[in-house]
């Protein structure tokens, strides 16, 4: 095994096949532009290191890892004063040939550690050969992430023990890391490393790969050469949990898996879970256990999906709201259930993954890092969203809203940042809606309603056709039309409002039942039939109320922060699993978000998960967000008298008082009218229920 | 609960009962001699701190802990220019009265934190009020230990949370530690601390006691005031294990408990245990499990004995030979079974106690520290013996021998130190001896044999009378005479040799059977009947051989080191549980130790355990021994050709070639004679058996 991955050492002399052109060779590296002159016979990797060029290597120049691949650029580079020719590098030697035949290399690529400078050359370092390669993000406006994880792999050749100069095997490994990789500050090794060390050294014939954390602690050892290291970015939402298994060496997400948060059975929203703990001693431990079990399950699933071995998972970064944070860490969340909402800690929590009950789900040396919570009601998920969206770097006033069962809201710019949370409930995620469902094939996600006929047309997830297309029945044959997802609910409500079916106060106008059979009575209120079939999909008055309550809570929280800053938003970022498919125009028509130029509203999906991934891949970002958090002003909506006022105004569509001038430039909103039927009293009844939750 | 231990805060103003004599007061502290002048009204504790006087306090001057007790010395101290009078301190206030009535104080004692300077005084700080109090050792020649443990307790009053300035409970604890105790570098808290923190703060009404490790990590928190902190010094011998539960605040051993090492059932000596692992895959894990279980049991027993709560055990320091070291840590010891005897590590191992399977046996935040092994065949027990006996500080050539199933031998002085180990087997601990037993009441420990009549007299442990005293039967009525302990065996063999019963070659002289019925045939050899009764206690030829083999191995190892240095020992220290009762003269007569002036031979008992206790109580000693170890030259007896030669010579009593001039000055040794009977062939038969073990 070790033999397969081990190659003969680099030749000391020059290759006989090629002769140096000159005693000294100039080399220019691109894209960095770094350049220097070296004695003929110097390897490209040695030259790169001497010049501080960002050229990767895991095996330390032994022709095993293939990380130092580079390409000679042929031609006359007059601006560098260099005539770069192919034969200015030594020919392919046995080591390189061996690597090439085993692993393959792109045309023109050379191993930097085996290629010697014989004359002047220009060497291009492709992005994948850079240590600090950057992960390209989908959206151009957000900065890239530089890969700089907490755990790195080092291949070393270790001296054998000598009875006459006794030393521990571990100490010889440390010496090798020092001599071969210049790692000086090594403090110790985890106990499991000590337990497996002697066997690994002998199995690997004194060649091993070492996983080192912060260049200080040895956390794992593999016999021979090993180049797999993964981490998991974990987002624990009140309703859903997700795990993004990520390659720590190139930043790629190799598997993304999700599941419902099993704590739902103890209470749908956060406060009901805290109540459960207050009423049931030990209830916190039950909830801790189930959420940890599910995390373990998700890690296993992600590993299976991407064929990643458990021992190659070396780090976990977690985010979640304060109550999820406490419950995952095994801290009773009771104090978060009442004023003054005291967190156990507002610093990041750094522990072993095994302390989260993840034995057997990660490497025994894996560590877990929980991002810091911002305040007792603004969680590590908000911190992650800030890390991902970077409002702290912007000039324009930016509103970042992370929609979940609890909405986390951040507002401000590089001068000043405020944060709060608002209890929206799970309606925006499709829960508590009569035909609501998670975003999955068969769910209605786009809706249009004809203003004259009040007839609907819609599209479902997984189908490209609108429902008024004659081929539509064929496209949904496999999935059926099963319900409405979060973005579908926003659209149907906004369209019903634009068509005059729903009044500004959120009443389904029963008088229109005379005009269309889509409007049908249901008890004392009316419903709108969106799809006739099995199941029949309706929008009920209760659905409308649930969305109104959710969007009003969200808007009121945002408005509170806008009040404090005293300037309207110039940019709005809508985050959350919910937010990834939403049409931001409809969100604004409903008054979910405040008025703002529509082209400055973006929907970014799971920004909390992205923030967790940034913290996983780049350790400096952890210090950065920690520092930013200390500057964030925390607003507690529960004690702000204006919150209730904003909430009442925001119950109207889009809003009772806010004029929404930017929106009106793009969309013609209906004039306020009074419904001729329907039951306004319903509103107060629902509100009572909500408080009782 | 918290209320009981919490006192009202210190008054800010002066006591009304007493008026200051002057605006400024001179204070002289004894024994340090530190002095200064302070504004009247300054407390004695404040003055002590300002002057850097070593005056303890756990509660931070709140009159709760009573650690700052001191005493005013009345009189005219002309050398200080101070007239010290009782009324130059403020009177006993309510806080001090309360402490006095609850806890009691010696006459004349005052609480330094409550006593204010009103005029010039001389204040004596008794030893128990010093932070860096020294543990007085029994023997004057060994330096004292300054108490400076890794874990310290701090009582703090923590700010309550404020919703408008949200911060974590932990962060407010850290602020309190910083402000009230000047602890700045705090890095984090263990997860169990986070889990219990919020409850403890509220239960203690924002007053808690914090256990801080290295002033960096919070490892435990108690509500209210708490002043108990213990550590365990653990010595894992091949045959026996011992735990010394020690008060980390005053260095006192509160309980010492011991047990047989349960690994004995896998093999009596070290090599047979390694063989067991080689023959039985997974055998190392079995042995790890049983030794950890026994350690857990001993910790529980020690806690019960001293009424120490499990959560008050905050640290464990372990020592043992390399194989015990590996097996306790869960490291396969196979590599220690063959050349080059590679240790997994030769650095100290710092882990959590829970990683040794000690959950529930110590505080969840307890750490374990295993002293470093010196080499693959010289263990952490030898390191501990060096720490305890300090040959590295001495001018005279010192031989330190730690007798156990494996003897660890250190030789040298402050210029140069050598170490080796030698496989003595368990005979010197009373095992493999026909009537051998552990040192316990009823065991024969002292023996004299009349050179004329060959009649013995002896004393047993627990009795003051010799067996020829007519009251002797009465004194042993309760215990009986049950066997011979290690020191008894040494004495009886040496006395038999002096009386001519045992020849220089170790043969029980059968010809003397004609002279006394104490000498009886047993197969082809003879035995000496030491005690007639139930059980009958004999010294058999096999017993003599077992002791010869053991002492020869020990002597040969020592001689090897003496050869290397080229100078004879000027001082001999005999350590080991065995060594604590031994009469060093008899040890030398037998040739267990090399010749040396008899008054320079000391028997010091369990020096390895003492070394462990030093490392437990004084963290600097850990760095010290670590550094000393790097300087020790390690000698591997197995590959030293002269070892076998020395061994053969040392089989004779006291030795075939060494003249023992110092011994001969004090004791008349018999002239060599040949036994007229007995079986010399026995020797080689035993040797074969020994090798087969």
UniProtKB/TrEMBL annotation, chains A, B:
It comes from the Bacteria. Residues 25-129 form the 2Fe-2S ferredoxin-type domain. Residues 658-693 are annotated as: Disordered. SUPFAM superfamilies: 2Fe-2S ferredoxin-like (SSF54292). Signal peptide: none annotated. Residues 663-676 have a biased composition (Basic and acidic residues). Gene3D superfamilies: 3.10.20.30, 3.10.20.880, Domain of unknown function (DUF4445). PANTHER family: IRON-SULFUR CLUSTER PROTEIN, IRON-SULFUR CLUSTER-BINDING PROTEIN-RELATED. This is DUF4445 domain-containing protein.
């Amino acid at each position: 095994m070790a033999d397969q991955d081990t190659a003969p050492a680099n030749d000391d002399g020059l290759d006989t096949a090629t002769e140096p052109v000159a005693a000294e060779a100039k080399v220019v590296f691109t894209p960095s532009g770094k350049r220097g002159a070296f004695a003929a016979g110097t390897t490209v990797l040695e030259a790169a290191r001497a010049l501080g060029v960002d050229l990767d290597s895991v095996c330390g120049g032994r022709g095993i890892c293939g990380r130092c691949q580079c390409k000679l650029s042929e031609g006359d580079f007059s601006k560098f004063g260099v005539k770069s020719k192919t034969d200015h590098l030594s020919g392919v030697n046995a080591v390189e040939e061996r690597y090439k035949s085993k692993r393959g290399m792109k045309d023109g690529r050379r191993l930097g550690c085996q290629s010697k400078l014989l004359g002047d050359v220009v060497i291009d370092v492709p992005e994948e050969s850079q240590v600090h390669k950057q992960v390209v993000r989908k959206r151009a406006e957000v900065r890239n992430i530089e890969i700089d994880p907490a755990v790195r792999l080092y291949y070393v050749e270790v001296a054998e023990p000598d009875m006459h100069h006794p030393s521990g095997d571990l100490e010889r490994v440390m010496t090798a890391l020092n001599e071969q990789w210049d790692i000086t500050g090594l403090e110790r090794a985890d106990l499991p490393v000590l337990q497996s060390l002697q066997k690994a050294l002998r199995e690997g014939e004194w060649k091993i790969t070492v996983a080192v954390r912060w260049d200080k602690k040895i956390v794992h050892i593999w016999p021979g050469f090993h180049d797999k290291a993964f981490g998991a970015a974990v987002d624990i939402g009140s309703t859903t949990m997700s795990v993004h298994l990520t390659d720590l060496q190139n930043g790629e997400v190799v598997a993304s898996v999700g599941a419902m948060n099993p704590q739902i059975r103890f209470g749908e929203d956060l406060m009901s879970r805290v109540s459960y703990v207050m009423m049931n001693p030990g209830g916190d431990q039950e909830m801790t256990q189930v959420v940890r079990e599910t995390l373990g399950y998700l890690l296993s699933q992600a590993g299976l999906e991407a064929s990643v071995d458990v021992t190659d998972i070396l780090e976990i970064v977690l985010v979640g709201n304060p109550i999820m944070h406490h419950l995952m860490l095994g801290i009773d969340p009771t104090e978060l259930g009442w004023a003054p909402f005291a967190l156990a800690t507002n610093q990041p929590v750094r522990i072993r993954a095994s302390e989260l009950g993840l034995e057997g789900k990660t490497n025994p040396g894996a560590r877990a890092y929980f991002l810091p919570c911002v305040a007792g009601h603004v969680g590590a998920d908000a911190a992650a969203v800030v890390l991902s969206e970077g409002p702290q770097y912007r000039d324009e006033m930016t509103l970042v809203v992370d929609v979940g069962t609890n909405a986390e809201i951040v507002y401000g710019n590089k001068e000043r940042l405020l944060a709060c949370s608002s209890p929206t409930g799970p309606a925006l995620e499709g829960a508590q809606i009569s035909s609501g469902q998670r975003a999955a094939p068969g769910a209605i996600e786009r809706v249009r309603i004809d203003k004259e006929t009040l007839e609907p047309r819609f599209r479902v997830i997984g189908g490209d056709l609108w429902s008024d297309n004659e081929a539509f029945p064929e496209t949904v044959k496999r999935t059926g039309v099963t319900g409405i997802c979060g973005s579908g609910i926003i659209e149907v409500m906004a369209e019903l409002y634009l068509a005059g079916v729903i009044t500004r106060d959120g009443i389904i106008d029963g008088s229109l039942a005379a005009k269309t059979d889509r409007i049908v009575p249901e008890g004392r209120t009316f419903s709108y039939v969106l799809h006739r079939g099995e199941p029949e999909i309706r929008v009920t008055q209760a659905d409308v109320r649930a969305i109104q309550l959710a969007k009003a809570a969200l808007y009121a929280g945002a408005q509170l922060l806008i009040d404090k800053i005293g300037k309207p938003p110039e940019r709005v970022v809508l985050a959350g699993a919910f937010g990834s498919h939403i049409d931001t125009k409809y969100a604004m028509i409903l008054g979910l978000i405040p008025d703002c130029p529509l082209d400055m509203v973006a929907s970014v999906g799971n920004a909390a998960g992205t923030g967790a991934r940034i913290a996983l891949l780049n350790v400096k970002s952890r210090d950065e967000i920690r520092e930013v958090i200390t500057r964030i002003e925390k607003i507690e909506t529960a004690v702000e008298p204006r919150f209730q006022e904003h909430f009442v105004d925001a119950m109207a569509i889009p809003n009772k008082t806010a004029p929404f001038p930017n929106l009106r430039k793009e969309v013609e909103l209906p004039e306020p009218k009074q419904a001729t039927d329907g039951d306004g009293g319903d509103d107060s009844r629902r509100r009572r229920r909500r408080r009782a939750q």
